[in-house]
Design a protein that fits this description.
The complex is a heterodimer of chains A (460) and B (336). With 460 residues, chain A is mostly helical. Helices cover 70% and strands 6% of the residues of chain A. The model of chain A is unreliable at 443-460 (pLDDT under 50). Classes of the chains: A mainly alpha (460), B mainly alpha (336). Chain A: InterPro entries: Cyt-d_ubiquinol_oxidase_su_1.
């Protein structure tokens, strides 16, 4: 394998691992603020118990996100120096603003949020929780500005192969930014909704009848049920935006080879890039035309438009985009069915504790459905951008570092090993914390803390 | 604008100063918490929890200064960013894996099932050690102009050890400030051992730099520079003597002067840093690329500078706030 492929796998692995954790912390920060405010408003202990449990998950996820994020920021330089050399004038300020307006805010106030509850007045602790939530969201904003700009670059001019900013407003509010940002924030909300619902269902199943677990299960289910229809609409808008700016990506998502009308919506197919056709197609007639053009005979662009005379291809690899898109949509459908069924039953039967056992069992693996959908969506959009790194400006190949392949392979193996280990540890600890909380070991009376290492206990 | 003349001159200089400031703050702040990690295996089980308690609220924000420093390098000097980081490919990877291990160990060691705690403690130590060693190695290679020969690699190996010792020294002085009783006495002992490593390290870098680079030699040993620079080694020597004296008399009965070793060490780090910054100016890649050649477009730098002028004081402000909130001995941190 060559340096380019290895570097791509390495960056892909890194970003796949990284994205799992901001996806949780962005929305979980706001949920924690909600728990804290509910506690202040009602004085009900269940909200403080909910806060104490989920703040641990937040701290753990945050640490995982921080360390993998630092890794990514270094890999721009170690593996993709061409990226900064070419578009550094634009990417640089955006990343700098992320660090300055978001990173420090999160990092400093996280310390106060985790360990300061007894050291600062309650309002300052609540403010810290808010600032951490705000910081993670700002972080998402800047990163999605940069990522969107790479998909739909605007507000710049090229001089000798280097991009120079001409209009910062156009750079920040580039054509795909609003859609991508909304889609990602909703994805984060859904990930957290199902994570909370899944772990709470798990606690309920192993016999935890506490008020806190019922409150969090209800919060997760209602949040999921409310967000999923919004996400479906937002996703549709995002798709139309992509059709306008990156038609080759949509063509790969639909598995559509020829530009034509009456394009079916493929439920399944095996795209064959050698033969440039699909095998085993199962589709809904006119479906893709209806969705993308709102007309049965609407003309949808095809992949063959992106093959040059000499046979060189400027569309993305079809199969990975085609399948990951279907995994994302399928997961979203499962979210819709499950959360609506659960909320309906919850209302009819008068509480989450009366939910049927099979439904609770189904919710447990769904705890990670947000991860599946987010990763699948991420692959759809990022593989769908290939061979471009910055659409129409810079190819992935042009940006890669001339580092010897064995060196990249060595570090790749090390990263993969450590990511596998951490992922295993993370998921195990989540369920371990849930079991511990279900046994009632979570809420230690405050007086028992004296004489121990307080920060360690508070962080536990 | 006229006031500053050509923005192509003062902007790169401003950003070099900002980057230098971030690196300095990083080395001091993450230096002490990395040092605490390096000292981890020498402590008893209960002491480990207190050591973690002393850095728990701070480490994450401390580490962010590294991200800012590398961010400024990337933003302000994109060509240097690529050149430096690809030249340091492997040590960067070692550092990143160290940072990953250490950063998650903070969380996992208290949240994972009890039998795992020992492994995460080891991961915390290993991560801190990997990070410190690789940063020292990178520093050495950077001083050597990023050239790879047996000599430069040997020099880098030596700076790797010395920076690790320097971090553990500032870590020990932090523990003197933040702990009491047996652990504080232990920390004084660690600092007594570490100070010789610091002296040797500062000495090695000071002797080697002018020898490798005729340019640095001229910068140091010509008149009047030699007289202007003289205060740096003289004050450093005085500080080291004071430190050695203070460590022999610590801890005191009323815990007075517990702050002194930490503050003196910070001053020592600052002096060493200025010596180095002076020697390397105007290069960002030693002997190859100056800050003026590597700088980004002035319009991009200007955009960031405006934001920095607003945001940096705020960052400093709430950083200080968090150190004030968590002031005092680490053992006093409790729910009352």
């Amino acid at each position: 394998m060559d340096t380019l492929l290895l570097s791509r796998i390495q960056f892909g692995a890194n970003i796949s691992f990284h994205i799992l954790f901001p996806t949780i912390t962005i929305a979980l920060g706001w949920v924690l603020l909600f728990f804290k405010l509910r506690w202040q408003a009602t004085g009900a202990a269940k909200w403080m118990d909910a806060y104490r449990f989920w703040v641990k998950v937040f701290a753990l996820s945050f640490a995982m996100g921080v360390v993998s994020g630092i890794t990514m920021s270094f890999q721009f330089g170690t593996n993709w120096p061409g990226f900064m050399e070419s578009v550094g004038n634009i990417a640089g300020p955006l990343l700098a603003y992320e660090v300055m307006t978001a990173f420090f805010l999160e990092a400093v106030f996280l310390g106060i949020m985790l360990f300061g509850m007894s050291r600062v007045p309650s309002w300052l602790h609540t403010l810290s929780t808010f600032l951490v939530a705000f910081g993670t969201t700002m972080s998402a904003f800047w990163i999605l500005v940069l990522n969107s700009w790479m998909h739909t670059p605007a507000g710049f001019e090229m001089r000798d192969g280097v991009a120079f900013a001409t209009d910062w407003w156009a750079i920040i509010f580039n054509p795909s930014m609003p859609y991508r940002l909304v889609h990602m924030l909703l994805a984060s909300g859904l990930t957290v909704a199902f994570l909370i619902a899944g772990l709470s269902a798990f606690r309920l199943l192993i016999g935890d009848r506490s008020d806190a677990v019922r409150a969090t299960l209800r919060t997760g289910l209602v949040m999921g049920a409310l967000l999923i229809p919004v996400q479906i609409v937002a996703g549709d808008f995002h798709g139309l935006n992509t059709l306008e700016h990156q038609p080759q990506k949509v063509a790969a998502m639909e598995g559509n080879w020829e530009t034509r009308g009456n394009v079916p919506l493929l439920l399944f197919a095996l795209p064959d890039e050698e033969a440039r056709e699909n095998r085993f197609e199962i589709g809904i007639p006119n479906g893709a035309s209806l969705i993308l053009k709102h007309k049965a005979d609407g003309v949808v662009p095809g992949l063959n438009d992106f093959v040059a005379e000499d046979g060189s291809v400027t569309h993305p690899p079809v199969a990975p985009v085609f399948f990951s898109f279907r995994i994302m949509v399928g997961t979203g459908m499962a979210m819709l069915l499950l959360s609506w069924a659960a909320v309906a039953l919850m209302w009819r039967r008068g509480g989450v504790q009366h939910l049927p056992k099979p439904l609770l069992l189904a919710l447990v693996p769904m705890a990670f459905s947000g991860w599946v959908a987010t990763l699948a969506g991420w692959y759809t959009t990022e593989i769908g951008r290939q061979p471009w790194l910055v659409q129409g400006v810079l190819t992935t190949e042009q940006a890669v570092a001339a580092v010897p392949a064995p060196m990249v392979l060595t570090t790749l193996i090390a990263y993969l090993a450590i990511y596998a280990l951490l992922l295993f540890a993370y998921v195990s600890v989540l369920f371990y914390l849930a079991r511990k909380a279900a046994r009632g070991e979570d809420i230690a009376p405050r007086t028992a803390l004296s004489g121990q290492a307080p920060v360690a206990v508070a962080a536990e | 604008m006229e006031l500053f003349g050509d923005p192509g001159t003062w902007l790169p200089l401003t950003f070099a100063a900002l980057m230098g400031l971030s690196i300095l703050i990083y080395v001091v702040l993450d230096g002490f918490d990395l040092g605490v990690g390096v000292l981890f295996p020498f402590a008893e089980e209960a002491e480990k929890d207190r050591m973690i308690a002393s850095i728990g609220p701070f480490w994450d924000a401390n580490e962010t200064w590294l991200v800012l420093a590398i961010g400024i390098l990337l933003v302000a000097f994109p060509t240097a960013h690529g050149a430096i980081l690809t030249a340091l490919y492997l040590p960067v990877a070692v550092m990143l894996i160290g940072l990953i291990l250490r950063g998650v160990a903070f969380e996992f060691r208290v949240k994972a099932p009890a039998p795992w705690k020992d492994s995460w403690n080891r991961a915390f130590f290993a991560g801190s050690l990997m990070t410190s060693l690789s940063q020292g190695y990178m520093l050495g290679l950077y001083i050597m102009g990023l050239q790879v020969t047996w000599f430069t690699l040997g020099f880098a190996a030596i700076t790797a050890v010395f920076l690790t010792v320097a971090y553990s020294f500032i870590g020990a002085t932090w523990l003197i400030l933040k702990t009491d009783k047996a652990l504080q006495r232990k920390a004084v002992g660690w600092a007594k051992g570490g100070i010789w490593g610091v002296v040797l390290g500062l000495g090695a870098v000071s002797v080697a730099s002018p020898f490798v680079s005729p340019r640095i030699f001229d910068k140091w040993f010509s008149v009047p520079e030699i007289f202007l620079l003289a205060p740096l080694p003289l004050i450093s020597a005085a500080l080291v003597a004071l430190l050695a004296y203070a460590l022999r008399h610590l801890p005191t009965k009323d815990d007075g002067w517990a702050w002194f070793p930490f503050v003196a060490t910070i001053t020592l780090f600052v002096l060493g840093f200025f010596g180095m910054a002076y020697s390397f100016y105007p290069y960002v890649v030693p002997e190859q690329l100056t800050i003026y050649e590597a700088a980004s477009a002035p319009e991009s730098l200007f955009i960031i500078l405006i934001g920095t002028l607003f945001v940096l004081p705020m960052i400093m402000g709430y950083t200080v706030l968090s150190y004030v909130i968590f002031r005092g001995k680490a053992t006093l941190l409790s729910y009352e």
